[in-house]
Design a protein that fits this description.
The chain is an alpha/beta fold and 307 residues long. Helix content is 33%, strand content 28%. The strands form three sheets. Strands 6-7-8-3-9-10 form a six-stranded mixed β-sheet, sandwiched between helices. A four-stranded antiparallel β-sheet has the order 2-1-4-5. It has a four-stranded antiparallel β-sheet with strand order 12-13-11-14, with no helix packed on it.
Length: 307
């Protein structure tokens, strides 16, 4: 069976001098060409994990390979395969966009390639800003330049650490579009984010990390199906203490005049029609009904809280 993973993490641990365990035996495989979202609260270990894979920090224990190369024994090779967009916007304020991106390419020992840099800036809607000094750009534009810098040496893997922090909603959606284009071009993308709708919108798979432990890795759609149950909320015309026994076959919760029905939206027969018929038969009147599906955010909060 062909191994399709581009990053393999085995028993990865990081313990700091004071004894704090930032990562605890993390095992993970990231597939070539996927968008993988790493979710977790502040201090969960997301940035520590990225820093180790990118060679910024050393692991205490465990092994990480990128494209089959060990990050410690073959540092130069693994680093050349990776592009990193950090949370902080670190750029030379007086340098132009063009020079900033070209310089970043040169740092990796890559020969100049003006055609590639031109296309990259056009793809990221930066071409008309190419001669502008960095200090004249908005925060959103600077964030795009950081992506261009990370892609300047044509990496196979791109890490985006909170890529849209502080970016307005319109620009955030525009950047999602750019990330999808990169994936179509064959780049593997690992994304950490506080905006859970970002993961819900873009990710193929989701990993949840909390207190240094990877508590779940799942295909996003499967996770939403398995844990994102659907609810039908019925507002009854009056309060009820209990329900007739004929309704016991339905998965119902009653709180005064609010009746909640949890159902499986994947089944052909959700049971909603039968439930409403049964309510009418029992002269239980209702004013309003609505359905809602659990969001990835609710699933995430439940998982972290459960742990």
């Amino acid at each position: 069976m062909k191994n399709n993973s581009i990053i393999e993490i085995k028993q990865l641990c990081k313990t700091y001098a004071g004894g704090f365990k930032a990562l605890k035996s993390v095992n993970l495989k990231i597939n070539k060409g996927e968008i993988f979202a790493l979710l977790g609260p502040n201090g969960a270990g997301k940035t520590t994990m990225i820093s180790i894979i990118c060679g910024i920090s050393n692991p205490s224990e465990g092994q990480v390979t990128v494209g089959g190369h060990d990050i410690l024994s073959d540092y130069k090779k693994t680093r050349s395969l990776i592009g990193l967009v950090p949370q902080e916007l670190n750029t030379d304020a007086f340098e132009s966009v063009w020079n900033t991106v070209c310089f970043s390419r040169g740092l990796f020992g890559k020969k100049p390639n003006p055609q590639y840099i031109e296309q990259l800036l056009k793809d990221l809607s930066l071409w008309d800003k190419k001669d502008n000094p960095m200090m004249t750009l908005s925060g959103g534009m600077k964030r795009r330049v950081m992506i261009a810098k990370a892609l300047s040496h044509e990496p196979e893997v791109l890490f985006l650490d909170e890529p849209t922090a502080g970016v307005d909603v319109e620009l955030r959606k525009d950047m999602w579009q750019q990330v999808r284009k990169l994936r179509e071009a064959g780049v593997t993308i690992i994304l950490t984010t506080h905006y859970i709708e970002e993961a819900e919108e873009m990710a193929d798979r989701v990993g949840v990390i909390n207190q240094g432990e990877l508590i779940l890795v799942e295909e996003k759609d499967q996770l939403m199906q398995k844990m994102g149950s659907k609810k039908l909320t019925i507002e009854l015309s009056e309060n009820h203490q209990k329900l007739p026994s004929s309704l016991s076959s339905f998965n119902l919760e009653l709180n005064k005049n609010i009746l909640t029905y949890n159902f499986d939206s994947k089944k052909e027969d959700s049971g909603i029609c039968s439930l409403l018929e049964e309510l009418v038969k029992n002269n239980i009147r209702f004013n309003d009904i609505n359905t809602q599906k659990s969001s990835l955010e609710e699933i995430f909060v439940a998982l972290v809280h459960k742990q």
